Amino acid sequence: MDKGMIIRTIVLILALVNQILVMTGISPLPFTSEEIEYFVTGAFTVVATLWTWYKNNSITKEAKQADTYLKQLKRNRK
Asked: Phi and psi (nearest 5°) for 24?
């Protein structure tokens, strides 16, 4: 069996159990809505920051030309 499939299935089962508990009025997580909102907002900011930092954001005309040249070099190497 694929390890990724097993992990995804376990996460899905946990999400379903959590949803059923919430629908019945039982809060399985000891967090307030405000704490969850802070976490989600913070995680989104961190992910967006890392993604933007990681990607090559060419802004100037010269940088865009250099990106095009690099892509051509990589294509010709194959």
From this structure: -90, 5
